[in-house]
Amino acid sequence: MNVVLNMSHPLSERAKVQIAERIGEFEEIVEKVQIDFSASNPFSQVNILTAWMEACHRAGGQGMVYVIPPAMSYMAYLVGATLSGEESRTPMIWLKRDDSSITPEFVFGGIA
Prior knowledge:
Strand order of the largest sheet: 2-1-3
Number of helices: 3
Strand content: 15-25%
Structural class: alpha/beta
Oligomer: single chain
Radius of gyration: 14 Å
Helix content: 25-40%
Distance between the termini: 20 Å
């Protein structure tokens, strides 16, 4: 089964349906990771995300692993993936804010 390692907010039902339409059935593993960008320690968030990418592959078993990095950390995730040579093995699902409904929610944005 596919695994979505979600380091952000739990997926809404709408986002789950949108993602399943693209990747098939999946298990969502939610693990909040707080990333605080700091000029005094600029690579700490990259190291955290790189460690999570390694955990992704262990969690995936026979299925594909996708990652939803913490909000505002897509660039750090991509840097970590590039530095560790993982960019071709761990696809990233990005979410976008949909303000068209009464209560704004995050919906599927794409897979990078």
